[in-house]
Design a protein that fits this description.
Layout: H1 3-12, E1 16-18, E2 30-32, H2 34-53, E3 58-60, H3 70-75, H4 77-80, E4 82-87, E5 94-96, H5 97-104, H6 116-125, E6 142-145, E7 148-151, E8 161-164, H7 169-174, H8 176-182, E9 189-198, E10 213-223, H9 228-245, E11 253-257, E12 269-277, E13 280-289, H10 293-302, E14 308-309, E15 316-317, E16 320-327, H11 328-339, E17 340-344, E18 350-354, E19 365-369, H12 372-387, E20 392-394, H13 400-409, E21 414-418, H14 420-425, E22 427-432, E23 438-442, H15 446-454
Parallel strand pairs: 3-9, 19-20, 19-21
Antiparallel strand pairs: 1-2, 4-5, 4-6, 7-8, 9-10, 10-16, 11-12, 12-13, 13-16, 14-15, 17-18, 21-22, 22-23
Helix pairs in contact: 2-11
The chain binds glycyl-adenosine-5'-phosphate (GAP).
Glycyl-adenosine-5'-phosphate binds next to strand 10, strand 13, strand 16 and helix 11.
């Protein structure tokens, strides 16, 4: 599936719409439509289930988007959460300078970490052209802050400047002590959070891949210094297993270890899980071993101790952190791309089908009265029974074959047909999306049937 095909599919079936479309749109903003909202919710539910609820170590948190601005001084975001940018002097197109160099060199130059003057020099000596107007007159390379700034309160002055968080994890660090005390937690333990993050990206793009407003699923796993390597390895495997157990093919995944010499001084390692997007393998999930850097910084800036008193050894230390961090939008893309198929059937017909894991499917089943007049009443009864426990849809619009096709295309794993047999002997026909085989199921067994097949 190309990116254009994906964008069109997502719009056609109500997964993703262009943001603010009736006003001409807002660049790189997207709305999750009715099915997209369900898919995103299921991704988050799956993540919380595996990362928090099924772990005896982990708890959750929901901290705000706007935090005390000192948080961003401590984390270093106000001074260094920047990207290098250049502007075209002719058409005023703005480009992320490191990416421009990487593209112009066909990926041969890794501009990450190049100094601004080195980027300028490279752009000049290679006569890099503006991708919009074709001229090669650029402003000098400058840094550009990715932080979204706004103000809080009724007076707009520097005192009231606040920022929209560019990552959710800082909210976890600053609540470390509260969580540990209130929940009486011993190390190791993790705190998982899901929430919106905002980055004024210079070159957003590739649909939901790089946007300015996105949702992150982050886990900060606090552990005793010296055990971080073990937990880093554990979470790398855990994240990969999460994806494959939800149906992502191993062939679509790769691990990329950041080279040691490129890591920040405090980092003990970063590994990205890359997914095969239409433009090539690119970052889906980042797993970082961050030592005690973040907690130390917050101790320094807040003056509060974020140390942990080990009840077994009576030692006091600042915990180390392992952080798996992923964007909901990137997983959303990965699940659609991995599972979409334009299938050619034995009789030569084609059907669009989304072979998505039933747990993630927006609807677990569709209830289909075979003949509207004769079967609607019973079908409604069954729909009402199922919808108390599952998200199911109801479709009585066209011929049954067309209704199956639409359900296949949006990934609904089961089609439940209500016909004369339902009225006479209380059975329904359940069609499987992937195999297209059918089971006869008693109405009273339907909930068990779906529960067994849609769990994770
Ligand atoms: N706390 C660590 C952190 O935020 P990151 O690598 O900057 O690390 C983590 O971001 C994940 O968030 C990425 O792997 C990606 O899945 C997602 N992400 C980052 N920037 C994004 C953007 N502009 N649009 C969509 N997702 C993004």
């Amino acid at each position: 599936m190309t990116l254009d095909e994906l964008v069109s599919y997502a719009k056609r079936y109500g997964f993703v719409f262009p943001g603010s479309e009736i006003y001409g749109g807002l660049a790189n903003a997207w709305d999750l439509g009715p099915l997209g909202a369900l898919l995103a919710e299921n991704i988050k539910k799956a993540w919380f289930k595996k990362f928090v609820d099924e772990s005896k170590y982990n708890v959750r948190l929901d901290s705000p988007i706007i935090l005390n601005s000192r948080v961003w001084e401590a984390s270093g975001h106000l001074s260094s959460f920047n990207d290098p940018k250049v502007d075209c002097k002719y058409c005023h197109n703005r480009e992320r300078a490191d990416k421009l160099v990487e593209k112009a060199s066909n990926g041969e130059v890794d501009a990450d970490g190049m100094k601004l003057e080195e980027i300028d020099e490279w752009i000049k000596s290679h006569d890099v052209k503006c991708p919009v107007c074709g001229k090669s007159e650029w402003t000098p390379c400058r840094t550009f802050s990715l932080m979204y700034k706004t103000s809080q309160g009724v007076v707009e002055d520097s005192q009231s400047t606040v920022y929209l968080r560019p990552e959710t994890c800082q909210g976890i660090y600053i609540d470390f002590k509260n969580i540990q005390r209130a929940m009486r937690l011993k190390l190791p333990f993790g705190v998982g959070q899901c929430g919106k993050a905002f980055r004024n990206e210079i070159t957003p793009g590739n649909f939901l891949f790089r946007v300015r407003e996105f949702e992150q699923l982050e886990m900060e796993f606090f552990c005793k210094p010296g055990t971080e390597e073990e937990w880093f390895e554990y979470y790398k495997a855990f994240c990969e297993n999460f994806l494959t157990s939800l149906g992502i093919s191993k062939d679509n995944l790769k691990l990329y270890d950041h080279p040691k010499e490129k890591l920040a001084f405090y980092s003990k390692g970063t590994t990205d899980i890359l997914f095969k997007f239409p433009w090539g393998f690119d970052e889906l999930w980042g797993i970082a071993s961050r030592t005690n850097y973040d907690l130390s910084k917050h101790m320094e800036f807040s003056g509060e101790s974020l140390e942990y008193l080990d009840p077994e050894t009576n030692e006091k230390y600042i915990p180390y952190v392992v952080e798996p961090s992923v964007g909901v939008g990137r997983m959303f893309l990965a699940f659609l791309l991995n599972n979409y198929e334009m299938e050619t059937l034995e009789n030569g017909d084609t059907r669009e089908v989304l072979h998505i894991h039933p747990y993630l499917a927006p609807y677990k089943a569709v209830v289909l009265p075979l003949i509207k007049k004769a079967h609607s009443e019973k079908a409604t009864e069954i729909y009402e029974m199922l919808s108390k426990e599952f998200i199911v849809s109801y479709d009585d619009t066209q011929a049954i074959g067309k209704r199956y096709r639409r359900a296949d295309a949006i990934g609904t794993p089961y089609g439940i047909t209500i016909d004369d047999d339902t009225l006479s002997n209380g059975t329904v026909t359940v069609r499987n999306r992937d195999t297209m085989t059918q089971d006869i199921v008693k109405v009273e067994d339907l909930k068990d049937y779906l529960r067994e097949r849609t769990s994770f």
